[in-house]
Amino acid sequence: MTHGRYASIPEHLKPAGTPGSTLLAIERKKASFDTKQMSEYLYGKEYLEKDAELVALLTSDTTGAFDKSNWNYLGRTEKFRLALKKDKRIAQLAREHGWDRETINHVESLCDFMGPFSVHRSMYLTTIDNMGTEEQKETFLVPALRYENIGCYAQTELGHGSNVQGLETTATYDKETREFVLHSPSMTASKWWIGGLGRSATHAVVMAQLIIDGKRLGPHPFIVPIRDPETRKPFPGISVGDIGPKAGLPGIDNGYMLFDHVRVPHFNQLSRFAKVDPETGKYTPPANSALTYGTMTYVRAGIVRGARTVLMRSVTVAVRYCAIRRQFADRDAPKFEGSKPIETQVLDYTMVQARILPILAKAYAFHYTSKYMYELYESCMEGINRGDLSLLAETHASSSGLKALCTIEAAEAIETCRRACGGHGFSAASGLPNFYNDYLPNVTWEGDSYMLSQQTSRHLLKQMRDLKRDPEGTPRSFTSDYMRHYFGVANGDENAAATRHEVNYSGDLHDPVWFIKAFGYRAAWLVDQTLELRDGPSKRSWNSILPELYRCAKAHSQALVIYNFAKAILNDSNLNSKPALRTVMQQLFLLHATHTMQQEGAEFISCGVIGPKQYQLLSNKSQELMASIRPQAVPLVDSFALSDYLVNSALGSSKGDVYEGLFRHALNEPINSSRWDVNVEDLETLEIDDSPALAKAKL
Amino acid sequence: MTHGRYASIPEHLKPAGTPGSTLLAIERKKASFDTKQMSEYLYGKEYLEKDAELVALLTSDTTGAFDKSNWNYLGRTEKFRLALKKDKRIAQLAREHGWDRETINHVESLCDFMGPFSVHRSMYLTTIDNMGTEEQKETFLVPALRYENIGCYAQTELGHGSNVQGLETTATYDKETREFVLHSPSMTASKWWIGGLGRSATHAVVMAQLIIDGKRLGPHPFIVPIRDPETRKPFPGISVGDIGPKAGLPGIDNGYMLFDHVRVPHFNQLSRFAKVDPETGKYTPPANSALTYGTMTYVRAGIVRGARTVLMRSVTVAVRYCAIRRQFADRDAPKFEGSKPIETQVLDYTMVQARILPILAKAYAFHYTSKYMYELYESCMEGINRGDLSLLAETHASSSGLKALCTIEAAEAIETCRRACGGHGFSAASGLPNFYNDYLPNVTWEGDSYMLSQQTSRHLLKQMRDLKRDPEGTPRSFTSDYMRHYFGVANGDENAAATRHEVNYSGDLHDPVWFIKAFGYRAAWLVDQTLELRDGPSKRSWNSILPELYRCAKAHSQALVIYNFAKAILNDSNLNSKPALRTVMQQLFLLHATHTMQQEGAEFISCGVIGPKQYQLLSNKSQELMASIRPQAVPLVDSFALSDYLVNSALGSSKGDVYEGLFRHALNEPINSSRWDVNVEDLETLEIDDSPALAKAKL
Known about the structure:
Two copies of one chain form a homodimer.
Chain A: H1 20-29, H2 35-43, H3 45-60, H4 76-97, H5 101-111, H6 118-131, H7 134-145, E1 151-154, E2 170-174, E3 179-183, E4 191-194, E5 203-212, E6 215-225, E7 238-242, E8 255-259, E9 262-265, E10 275-276, E11 283-284, H8 290-324, E12 335-337, E13 340-342, H9 350-385, H10 392-420, H11 432-439, H12 441-444, H13 449-469, H14 478-490, H15 512-535, H16 546-571, H17 573-576, H18 579-599, H19 601-606, H20 612-629, H21 633-638, H22 644-647, H23 658-667
Parallel strand pairs in A: 1-5, 2-5
Antiparallel strand pairs in A: 2-3, 3-9, 4-8, 5-6, 7-8, 10-11, 12-13
């Protein structure tokens, strides 16, 4: 380890006790299954090979664009600079290697910090592709794919978020000149939060209220050139800039933009669906909005898969670190090394297990949920293409509810894992603080997770109304199935019963089908109670029952997660042919199910699925399961096969070199390379040696 | 508003609709009580006057040391520089104005970002004061109070946090030279996380394992000079530096330190309690550790008061912003302004109320809890001084549990409030992201909140054992009182009953005494269940019941919070003489009590205090209460009397200029003052005009 001018450590020192690498090796020997087989089961061989290939490419790139090692020491401007460099390099490599969209997404997820081109790559290109005519695609898509134009997607305004109908920006059609005039009537009309707009974008898809002959026709997308690609100056009438620092995502230049009567040609209105006749100004509305729902489902499927990966990554860090970290000797049966008590691995504390092992189980649960969402998307799109819109409502409802549930739980999981790492979780070297701050927008964007669930519950209420009116006529679906089962129980159908009588010992909590029934029953019961508030004699206003609606959506989504996890245990032939995998997966399922049921205990008791005795049994069962899963914890996170490059954590490295990693992080700190005068008489701090290069540490 | 070179907005634009200032004025007119009277009731006139005086002094200081407006744009090094300047300026002003410790703490809390001298001011000075002899105080305290020395408190090591007994650093007594030899035997022995050590400190209190004649005598404090105050170079044998970036607290130089046989004179062992005879090396252990518990209680009382202020500040931001922000028209009864639907104030959504109004109530609850903790500390210290240690166990147990409960809930509250601010909550301008990240260490330090609660439950188990053995002999205390009541119910004492039979309508949920009984009953029931696991036939190991122990501690602490809030409602003559304050405070109490009981519903149902029907009534009642409190929300946060300087949020300013504030934050962003070349061919980003001065925005 090199000695810096003001900071150093002696080279010969090693961590005390058993090295982290040995501890991880011991943990890995406990595996009751083949981690490589598990990884292949989760992702498929092809994906894993591609991942390894891309990681090798990025880590051997010599431009420095993919180097994460200095990120934590940089200020916002420098971070933006590095993220821009990274995004440019991805564009170059994509061209060189002929990467498709999926590969680019894969690379972006490995690089971790999002940059100024991410919205260009996702929203800008997608919107033109979906909403533009062939001619518009030729004009706008081709230069954008070549990165000659950089685009952004300008919808949100300073005063208007989720409520798109409330947008203030107007696009008034001028028949004389065949132009649309874009205008911002007030300060709150300013576009805001627009990724890539702050400094990078040359073009924007602008969502604006279309006005023709004084008639407001709702928000429509327009392509607006905003900056001269050569001089980088905004075009006349456009005020634009970066909105300033955020909780996270410093690499993105989220921007604002105001229009002062900015004119674009008629051609710039994306007119695949809604059209304006250039001469008469006659407006033709879009045929149907089914495709919009398709896109939304696809985006949300991506968010749910993202939530799964968030859980995987956080719990990889927490499990590995807690397997290496030791704290306090066992109270009842201390062990000794000579006269010195050996401290317990933190992962052996049941209170630590109770915090992080359910997250481990949930990562597997969300894996199946995200697979289900992509399948749902596929079959929904297939239907739409056949003109069959019957799956649309169910798909939209489930994707909204799952987006809300998974993002809220993923954000919480990062923080739970960070805290489980104790003091060192607070170090940026743990990787979790940045990760958390960058993840947070997921809870709010693509529909605020607390409000979005209304989309789910609206469908649930409607479904139950339909079933009550016409039990036979309602088509089968996940939702109508569990609701029918609920009515069956209410009507005394013994076959349908999902009651406490089936569970008398913790050993009775073993059957995936019981959990499917129980979660469905509780969801249906909540919907029934809420429907009574809305349609019953009290005729409660929608607003007054929002907390109840939120609970319905949450219960429905939890039931979906349980259902899809259980289905895999029961029917996945790929899993059932591998008994070692299946055994540990069953335990993970039961942990997820008992833990979730316990957390929602009051509702499960209230609806009669369990009683206080069963509530206690859930706790016993989940503790038993955690004791069984504990020895498998390191192999189970190893199975996620996340590269050290992605995990990017001194605490969660697969090598187990926790303390060496923390020291590397310390020695690179720039304030270690300068002198700081603490003399109270001089108010200005004196720096003598402010060397620009960071001290290079070798361990 | 001035136009920057690359960013500007048109000067004439105003936010659409009713201005924020008007909306807040309307809200303030709804007050059912006098906010000034409420503030005086909470803090006393004297405190409020002092606060106003100090805010005026800091905001008019011309050195720039207290200017928060650029903080968000600075990198870590610049933040450290500004924090150092601020701490120096506080030292100068303290000298000039003769400030006492309390005033300095007050100033630090207003300044918000902690700096490199905070540990010097708290832990270093306090430790010497408490543990040093008169001669040692003369030698070490005098220059430290003059800031000629800057000290830190070096206890935690890289491999050792909460377990002080496990520290590796040794201090071996050398009788020949009458010196202690400090040494770090391994890498994990490195001092770590030490505030002020990274670059600032000249001295450290070092906790090290005392070794005399080969005998290990446990950790003891030593004063070690670490850097030459003139050259700032570490003394020989000392490796020291900053540990690098963290999730928050960038203004503090948390440091590491390793010793290679560093010698300090015998005099440097702080020897008020534990002594080493200089000649013989004979060791005299400290008389008793009662005082340590006193200090810990005092520190924890401060943490609980801090948690209260955290709740106040977060909810001030969320309530004010949600009163100004509008989103979507009402679904059932839309209102119109001409043909345009008027959007609803976000604060009117019951789902938003359900998230932030319980935090408002909790801020008041924690206010009384923190008062109680200071009283507890006083009476405990009084007892210790009289030689009466009977209060010690109860005080230690309660302060540990409350520290855990309050810090976890305060951290969660910041994030809940941030999310309630929607997208703009993610902007650094909201003030909440930094605030959250800086607050997080409170959950971990001074005893990890998840492990610390063992201190509480150990006492609870012991207390119940004592009571079962000798119901009459156990002295009265908060804990033994609620446990006796629990046994009374179990033995069929009708007077003691706290059962569901008393609550049949939501209107029955009105009596503070019922809630005191109910929370106490549930805590006692949990302790009884847990005691059965530990002492009963299953003889469960301590480790295996940690989750149950955690629940006991949480229930006990929640019962304490309820008890102290209820006591104020019932007995506080100062409150009872002001009916307007008392009325709203009763509602806040009931909201806090019903909301908390609902959250812990499964346990309350399990122990029989309520049934599923009452669980539903709790939900109805808390919704009724939120509807009543909603019009008082802005006046209630105004009553916290937090200065705009402290709140430091564009969203939470008392003036209501939300959108203007967000624009100011945008125009100051440094990346708006330079040109960014996005040309993909050039990998290095080009900056043409990287002016060092930030663009100055005027609105």
